[in-house]
Design brief:
Number of strands: 5
Mean pLDDT: 87
Strand content: 35-45%
Low-confidence stretches: none
CATH architecture of the domain at 2-94: 2-Layer Sandwich
Helix content: 25-40%
CATH class of the domain at 2-94: Alpha Beta
Structural class: alpha+beta
CATH topology of the domain at 2-94: Alpha-Beta Plaits
CATH superfamily of the domain at 2-94: Ribosomal protein S6/Translation elongation factor EF1B
Largest sheet: 5 strands, antiparallel
């Protein structure tokens, strides 16, 4: 059964931007080989790390959203571990996105504002209601 996932990973900054994009393409191709669907994949961005990872303070950050059969997820993780330029990765299971219908605009409140009720009328109605009990 296909599940929706979010894959975030950090690629070593010692390689070029083109090489980081190539790693990203390889991972997306692997997902598609396993009959997965890549719904969104952003280009890698160079970021400053909060703390050094393997003595690196900068890295390429990549996020990919995809659907994949849960049985093939372990193969993907094995592929990520084998890639020596990936410093860290995280796979999260996500909920499917629901497309909500556009609501009609609310009716203006002008009609309610234009009708002012006198205090005497309110008291009469309250008396009628209380007399019925």
């Amino acid at each position: 059964m296909k599940q929706n996932y979010e894959l975030s990973y950090i690629i070593s900054s010692q390689i070029s931007e083109e090489a980081s994009q190539e790693i990203s393409r390889k991972i997306n191709d692997f997902i598609q080989e396993k009959q997965g669907i890549v719904s969104e994949s952003q280009l890698p961005k160079k970021i400053a790390l909060g703390y050094p990872i393997r003595k690196e303070v900068f890295a390429w950050f990549q996020t990919t959203y995809f659907s994949l059969d849960s049985l093939n997820l372990s193969d993907l993780e094995k592929n990520l571990k084998e890639e020596k330029n990936i410093l860290r990765y995280l796979v999260l299971k996500t909920r499917p996105m629901r497309i909500r219908s556009v609501r009609a605009p609310k009716k203006p409140l002008e009609k309610l504002k234009s009708q002012k009720v006198e205090l005497g009328e309110i008291e009469k109605k309250l008396d009628e209601i209380l007399k019925q009990d």
